[in-house]
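Hello Y.,

Per our agreement to keep a running log of every chain we model this quarter, I'm adding this entry. I've kept the format consistent with earlier entries: sequence first, then predicted structure.
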Amino acid sequence: MGGGFEQELLFDLPEDTDPSGSTVVWNPWHGCKRYSEGCRNCYVYRIDGMHGKDASKISKTKSYSLPMQKTRGGKYRIPYGSLVYLCFSSDFFLEQADPWRPGIWEMIRIRRDLRFFLITKRIKRAAGLLPSYWDEIKSRIEICCTMEDQNAVNARFSAYSEFPAHSRTIVCEPLIGKINFSTLDGISKVIVGGESGPEARVCSYSWVMDIRRQCQEAGIAFYFKQTGARFEKDGKVYNIPRSIQHEQARKAGIDIKLAMSN
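Predicted structure for the entry above:
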């Protein structure tokens, strides 16, 4: 995946992932429709705009069948045992992609050697779009849900807590407001990050630390992924270059690493 999308990955690997294995990005379709306040400065729209493209136009890509593609030598292009970041230039449960999704499920079913990681805001649609063989494949797919502010938590948490996932990870990125989880029952991890890009909204360290406190009290993992471009701490807003936003988050040393509880 080119054009800078790869900078948005850098997620902490699932607890049981072999660190020696490869990671691959698979975007079977491209483009998205803005869904909530967290989408205002979407990096897909920003990067596509830089190349004169309209990110609101959704299209199937040449990579649609990537897991089944082979080299001239007969080996799969996605190596055995890889972790696959799925649909990072769109939303996997986007309505416009409904005709294409069944084929994706089938390829996931066939490639039993792969692990998959995806993030969605459209968790309310997700349960109704699972294949009949979901129980057969769900242990190899980590479906995370984005909750960027309190409104998103109020709108999505209940649906996510009821979603039949092998484990559940909440992604508070871009974190654009203070969040209070009334419960974190059924959640394995919370990932937090600020907003990137020239129009980035401020992310406050106090919001980050409050989510960390809630994770600590609930006995679940916490990962501070990046500061974002505008980061507020102790009343001062810092403009942080893109190249060191992940590094600055790591230097904070506030991650909570625990064995997966769900």
